[in-house]
Amino acid sequence: MQILLGLILGAVIGLAAHFSLPHREVRGAALAPLAGAAAAAVVWTALTWMGFGVDAPILWLVAVLAPAATVFTLVPLLTRSRLARDAADRKRLGF
């Protein structure tokens, strides 16, 4: 049940990334929050399996840093890819 804390934290970080990064009109609004929640879930699960509890500061630190690193790396790459693909399609179609 405590994994929900990590999921919510990751989704909030992803939501903040969605609104802070440029070109949000070319990506879905759920992409960044879902990526952040997934990263937080993986890290939270791994650390709890290693024996860290909710009272361990390392769990919270990694639960914040992992989604931030994932989202702020993944979203610009996907956005850049989408913009390049759209430009290639426009060129191919003659627009």
Largest sheet: none
Rg calc: 16 Å
Tell me which oligomeric state these chains represent.
Answer: single chain
Mean of pLDDT: 95
Q: What's the helix count?
A: 3
From the helix content, strand content and strand pairing, which structural class follows? Answer: mainly alpha
Q: Write down how many β-strands occur, each being a DSSP E stretch of 2 or more residues.
A: 0
Determine the fraction of residues in helical runs and give it as a percent range.
over 70%
Net shape: elongated
What ranges have pLDDT less than 50 throughout 5 or more consecutive residues?
Answer: none
Q: Order of helices and strands, N to C?
A: HHH
Binned strand content: under 5%
Distance linking N and C termini: 52 Å
Task: Provide a concise account of the structure shown.
The protein has three helices and no strands.
What topology does this entry show?
Elements lengths: L2 H18 L10 H19 L7 H37 L2
Describe the structure.
The protein is mostly helical and 95 residues long. It contains three helices and no strands. It has helices at residues 3-20, 31-49, 57-93. α1 (3-20) packs antiparallel against α2 (31-49), α1 (3-20) crosses α3 (57-93) and α2 packs antiparallel against α3. The longest helix has 37 residues, at 57-93. The model has no long low-confidence stretch (mean pLDDT 95).
